[in-house]
Amino acid sequence: MWPWTVTVLLVPSFISSEILFLLLQVMTRGCLITEARYLQISEWNISLIHSSRPTIYSECVTQIYENTYFQGGDLSTVFTPSANYCQIVCTYHPTCLLFTYLPVTWTKDPAKRFSCYLKDSDTEMLPKVDMEGAVSGHSLKQCNIKISACSPDVHIGLDMEGENYDVTVAESYQQCQKRCTNDDHCHFFTYASKTFHNASFREKCFLKHTRLGTPTSIRVLDEVVSGFSLKPCQLSEIDCKMDLFEHQEFSGMNVTSFFTPDTSVCQTICTYFPNCLFFTFFTKEWQIASQRNLCLLMTSTSGTPEALTLRENAISGFGLLNCRRYFPACNSRTYVHMNFLGDELNVTYTKGHKACQQVCTDMIRCQFFTYFPLQDSCNEERKCECHLRMSSNGSPVEIKHGPGRISGYSLRLCKKKASTVCMQHSSRTIRIVGGTDSSPGEWPWQVSLHVKLFRRRHHCGGSIISNQWILTAAHCFMSRQNPNIWRVYAGILKQSEIKEDTPFFKVEEIIIHPRYTYAQTGYDIALLKLDKPMNFTDLQLPICLPSKEEANILYTDCWVIGWGYRKERGLVEDILQKVTVPLMSKEECQARYRKRRLDDNVICAGYDEGGRDACKGDSGGPLSCKHEEVWYLVGITSWGEGCARPRQPGVYTKVVDYLDWILEKTT
């Protein structure tokens, strides 16, 4: 649509890139520089400049700039206790692309300490100014990582100020933070310790909220601890209200309103918008034309609607921040016969609305789009107009209904880590059948690890987590750390089917956790790197690793599988066995093993009456749990007292606690 120009400049090498950038902005007279490359030849820099209209395609920038201030582009200022939280605020702000933060060490103007300056720029660049103590960085909107608003850190010696709406006595800051997490209105808290200078405030827990969800100011104060609610970490114990109420209008104190295409988007906005507890959405059939597709965000003192009114074409519901599962702040659906109106960033041509959505996702400022698959809007290549748009609040300023248009949102906050965390085919449903024998392809991530000492035999289980990595238990390799003696068999059901000509993988490398000594002291985890990549089939597929944001899911459908013994003095089973087991709290498990101190990074499962459990030969195999049609590797079979003894649950390595180590070693 827009012509591109390439300019070649010869510039002395002593001219810095920041100064050169400002010169180029003047020279291009408002056209935006979407790409600038600097090549040094002798004493000259050659600058290749690609310029266009105000549209820029961006990649993730994670660099933090110390002693640097981004000049200009100011959107607003908030107060945050750290640069990390400033970056979180910028990431969730609809238009913030850059930020500058002034930490506690800022001395030039103490009143500006903890200021978080949210900034925007057409080019995702602003001039950098040297400023001692300032910290600057970028929004993570474009990063291929799972974005989370969770901030578990506490801040010692800082008082985060807001409206103190509830003051109670608490024994510790942990207890205070838990109260904040389990209170609908609480955004953050401050706890005064037992040595606080004012005796009347000692051991007091101050629950606070503000209009924006961030402190109105922050001050240094001895003997206090401040922190945020852990509701975004999925740690709230308040009821998760996911039900929608059709033909019901909720009443409450209005927070704000947006135009949205459906209740799902309205509910997502309510989930992440400060102070929104519930909402009402008016459908396209709503009798008042100007209110069609309107999403009303509301709150109340009680936390529940003040009234419910029967209203045709209205749908109401609650925000999902209290739920113990992660809801991304994005929407991937597209909407037929809808035109999302907003500020026009660019019009390009794409083949299909999915391609249009991807262009919007890749463009740094695009928030939503409308695709025009109409004959008069398409070119000779059968590519049609893709309108890329934005607004100040991230939502359409109006939604028009009419034939032909297809609209949707950028997927930038939907992204997850492109890593070994989850490569499972999300559309696949695993068949569960009765009995103890498994079926072919029922557990496609299970592998059999064979070792050759005097003869080759099954020794341990393991789980496929990517095409070249197996996750298993460290204790399987005691005195057996030579990769050459191991074989990995995938996609098998019966041990008797393994012959000399059965395909297998050699082990290239064995990585045992550096802190492992023996199973009962924890860190019972190991990685095997295969000698070649694995081709995925219906019989061999990876299992997902639970992410940190989903660490607190309450799994109710968990299975242990393996070829291990059925009783303490038995033999390896021929057919892969399975048994469903309930998970057990750490406190319950510790009570069963009073003579041992359980490591924090384990999870227990089993029945009080015994009879069903993992046993010898199952070591290293998966504790697989199903949640929302996806299977997760929650645990690795580690140890237990005997096999299936009453009140002696199985102990499993808690995989989520080792996620960073796994990713470090496998990527």
From TrEMBL:
<dbReference type="Pfam" id="PF00089">
    <property type="entry name" value="Trypsin"/>
</dbReference>
<dbReference type="GO" id="GO:0006508">
    <property type="term" value="P:proteolysis"/>
</dbReference>
<keyword id="KW-0378">Hydrolase</keyword>
<keyword id="KW-0732">Signal</keyword>
<dbReference type="InterPro" id="IPR001254">
    <property type="entry name" value="Trypsin_dom"/>
</dbReference>
<dbReference type="InterPro" id="IPR000177">
    <property type="entry name" value="Apple"/>
</dbReference>
<keyword id="KW-0964">Secreted</keyword>
<protein>
    <submittedName>
        <fullName>Coagulation factor XI</fullName>
    </submittedName>
</protein>
<keyword id="KW-1015">Disulfide bond</keyword>
<keyword id="KW-0356">Hemostasis</keyword>
<dbReference type="InterPro" id="IPR009003">
    <property type="entry name" value="Peptidase_S1_PA"/>
</dbReference>
<keyword id="KW-0094">Blood coagulation</keyword>
<feature type="domain" description="Peptidase S1">
    <location>
        <begin position="432"/>
        <end position="667"/>
    </location>
</feature>
<dbReference type="InterPro" id="IPR033116">
    <property type="entry name" value="TRYPSIN_SER"/>
</dbReference>
<dbReference type="InterPro" id="IPR043504">
    <property type="entry name" value="Peptidase_S1_PA_chymotrypsin"/>
</dbReference>
<feature type="domain" description="Apple">
    <location>
        <begin position="60"/>
        <end position="143"/>
    </location>
</feature>
<dbReference type="Pfam" id="PF00024">
    <property type="entry name" value="PAN_1"/>
</dbReference>
<dbReference type="GO" id="GO:0004252">
    <property type="term" value="F:serine-type endopeptidase activity"/>
</dbReference>
<feature type="domain" description="Apple">
    <location>
        <begin position="240"/>
        <end position="323"/>
    </location>
</feature>
<keyword id="KW-0645">Protease</keyword>
<dbReference type="InterPro" id="IPR001314">
    <property type="entry name" value="Peptidase_S1A"/>
</dbReference>
<feature type="domain" description="Apple">
    <location>
        <begin position="150"/>
        <end position="233"/>
    </location>
</feature>
<keyword id="KW-0720">Serine protease</keyword>
<keyword id="KW-0325">Glycoprotein</keyword>
<dbReference type="InterPro" id="IPR003609">
    <property type="entry name" value="Pan_app"/>
</dbReference>
<comment type="similarity">
    <text>Belongs to the peptidase S1 family. CLIP subfamily.</text>
</comment>
<keyword id="KW-0677">Repeat</keyword>
<keyword id="KW-0865">Zymogen</keyword>
<dbReference type="GO" id="GO:0007596">
    <property type="term" value="P:blood coagulation"/>
</dbReference>
<dbReference type="GO" id="GO:0005576">
    <property type="term" value="C:extracellular region"/>
</dbReference>
<dbReference type="InterPro" id="IPR018114">
    <property type="entry name" value="TRYPSIN_HIS"/>
</dbReference>
